[in-house]
Amino acid sequence: MKPFAIDDIFEKRRPREFRRPVTGHEVARSAGVSQSAVSRVFTPGASVSVQTRAKVLAAATKLGYRPNLIASSLITGRSRIVGVVVPGLRNPFYAALVDALSEALSGRDYRVMLFTAWHGTSADPILDEILRYRLDALILVSAELSSRLAEECGEVGLPVVMVNRKTDSEAVSSVTGDNRAGAACIGSFLLAGSHRRFVFMAGLDSSSTSRDREAGFRERLLQAGAVPPLKVHGSYTVEVASRATRELLKARTRPDAIFCANDQMAMAAMDVARSEFGLDVGRELSIVGFDDTQLAASPAYRLTTFSQPVEKMVDNAVAILVDACNGRDLSTGPHIVGGRLVVRDSARLPPRGLSQVGGRTVWTQSAKQSID
Amino acid sequence: MKPFAIDDIFEKRRPREFRRPVTGHEVARSAGVSQSAVSRVFTPGASVSVQTRAKVLAAATKLGYRPNLIASSLITGRSRIVGVVVPGLRNPFYAALVDALSEALSGRDYRVMLFTAWHGTSADPILDEILRYRLDALILVSAELSSRLAEECGEVGLPVVMVNRKTDSEAVSSVTGDNRAGAACIGSFLLAGSHRRFVFMAGLDSSSTSRDREAGFRERLLQAGAVPPLKVHGSYTVEVASRATRELLKARTRPDAIFCANDQMAMAAMDVARSEFGLDVGRELSIVGFDDTQLAASPAYRLTTFSQPVEKMVDNAVAILVDACNGRDLSTGPHIVGGRLVVRDSARLPPRGLSQVGGRTVWTQSAKQSID
DNA sequence: ATGAAAGCGCTAACAG
DNA sequence: CTGTTAGCGCTTTCAT
After folding, report:
1. pTM for the complete prediction?
2. For labeling, which of A145, A258, B118, B348 is most exposed (least CB within 10 Å)?
3. Shortest CB distance from A113 goes to which of B68, B88, B112?
């Protein structure tokens, strides 16, 4: 009776003429061994005689057997799936990050479950989903997480790693570029290029990244006794950034240097400055970005921007994650990976401090100019 | 004894002081009901009395219960996870596609498991993974799949939808833009703009998309009695496309029109033509792309390109997929969604045929010029 | 080295 | 409407 009952249930679910996936039990029967023998054959460190292994393997390939990972993860308690939450893939920097993450994780035999949230939105509702799927870990790319839920993750033992964002909550590791120092560096660079009227185009105030970049920039300018930057909002989108730039350039006294919290906004600003105001960006107006996305290097922009080393950030994040999944949680807290100011043509050059590194021109503050 | 044994096992796996996720059984005990009552409360269409529901919900929130979707999918046979295979996210067109797919699927209550393969590589090894996870369906974005495995998917009842690629195999649905017609349209457009020396920059010959675009372009040129296009290889990458363009423009007799199989290559070609050869693209040399990615519209490129309606493709793909997951497999085979030639400044304009649609300039072949 | 047996957390008949 | 019961396909003792 049993098989019939099962088949009936099955038929109700898959109304078509499908052979349902073959189970370990079936392989066992076909090979004349026990089901546990089959399991052992497919478990890396298990002890099976060569004969049994051969029999099982033969039967398995004959029947087209593939172990059901869902079932095994139910019992082992680990799914080897990690959730990746990202505010959309339209921003090339995020796309690059997720791409690298996906590759790194699959190299470590983890699968990626992708969640696209919205910019500035909390990851909370998504996280609820994630908790239901019993994922092994969670990576938050440029996404926020309420401390309540962060806590809950800690309680449940779900390792959380934030990438390109940080948080106050302990038990949540984070990997970011050096936003503060990078922004300060840009400040110095612009100062050295004798700019006077600065503007900072923010991303989202809810993002620690944008706040840190603003703080670093502002502080450096203040230290140098310059006029603090005017702050405008670009929302990390080209539409808003374009509008903001338009306003800026329509004003009677224009800024002579705009630092945008990311490359996308910087390129949008360049587009507006060049095509709507006919400005020669790099001579009449300096624009600097942050991230060093692929497009920043293209001849169409040649954007001066602070590089965020995607590979390094990803390696770090994955290392932390893997450690955490294995119970070693040594590395909680913030991790900062350094970057460089990559100098191209979108901002006026300072007289000194330029050097060549790996085919790129970078700027470093010379010793005597150094402030901190 | 039992709980101890379980706890021991648990401790071995999660070496830290974690409370393991609470189970439905625990909620049941705390609420003074049966475990199935708990299950019913969390099953949409089940009948539970208000009192029980209240008791269960109270206990559940108190304990922080979240149903284990892994366990439930083991028994229902559906995971509500679909695999999405894509050759990297660095190509903005793919990123946009995956982004839209992710959003559309999460709207239908499906989760996305992301696999990044490599361009031109078969999805086969990845698919093996996928089969082990018992995903509900598979979406192949611009990725190939051997017919052997496609068949195997059919046998197992795993619905497969290819997006931006097609295949000969039945039982595999595909959604593509109208590559052939689009390429033919570009041919006519270029002809009407009185170009003479054409080149087609291919993506990968293994991609049906590139082949279709080539065929459509070539045929149209031939029909018109023009010299067939010279074919060069761009591999869908900016490096190779740049090199190819360089070679092309170094030659004694330059082409006057280059049709690139995608926007990325077209923009790479523009970069080389402008910055290395000082050419005025759109006057001295015409370059046309395919996809109409976001960047194509930017003032820095203003690329003339055939639009692929991402939203429409995604809606189609998701609809097919959802149908298939529910056993209705009416829509297998190829689906083609149309596009338009979006005219901007990277190619010389023909005297007639231009019109405004939704704020964009598009080109349509006038009746008397029409050939097929 | 191998099989039997006991679950992992959940859903779905089936009685009541 | 609710509890009981029987598994989903697998891993892991525990004897043998």
Report:
1. 0.91
2. B118
3. B112
Nearest chain A CA: its distance from B188 CA (Å): 29
> Which 8-state DSSP code applies to residue B227?
P
B75 neighbourhood in chain A, CB within 8 Å: none
**Selection from A260, A78, A230, A261 nearest residue A164 by Cα:** A261
Nucleotides of C under 7 A from a protein CB: 1-13
Q: Smallest Cβ distance to B90: which of A99, A106, A327?
A: A99
Sign of CA dihedral A229, A233, A235, A238: negative
B125 to A39, A73, B117, B149: CA distances (angstroms): 21, 21, 9, 10
CATH number of this structure's domain B81-177+310-337: 3.40.50.2300
Neighboring chain B residues of A327 at a CB cutoff of 8 Å: 14-16
pLDDT in tens, A197-256: 999 999 999 899 999 999 999 999 999 999 999 999 999 999 999 999 999 999 999 999
User: Contact at 8 Å (CB) between B183 and B212?
Assistant: yes
Residue reference for tokens 């350039």: A249
Encoding tokens for residue B87? 């050759």
Cβ of A23 near strand D (under 7 Å)? The reply is: yes
CATH topology of domain B17-76: 434 Repressor (Amino-terminal Domain) (1.10.260)
Radius of gyration of the CA atoms of chain A, in A: 27
The predicted pLDDT at position B88 comes to 92
CA distances from A316 to A107, A112, A163, A226, A310 (A): 14, 17, 9, 37, 10
Hey, where are the domains in chain B? 17-76, 81-177+310-337, 179-309+340-371
The pLDDT tens digits for B44-66 are 888 899 999 999 999 999 999 99
Residue A122's DSSP bridge partners are A144
Query: For B179-309+340-371, CATH number?
Result: 3.40.50.2300
Q: Phi, psi at residue B366, to the nearest 5°?
A: -75, 155
Same fold, B17-76 and B81-177+310-337: no
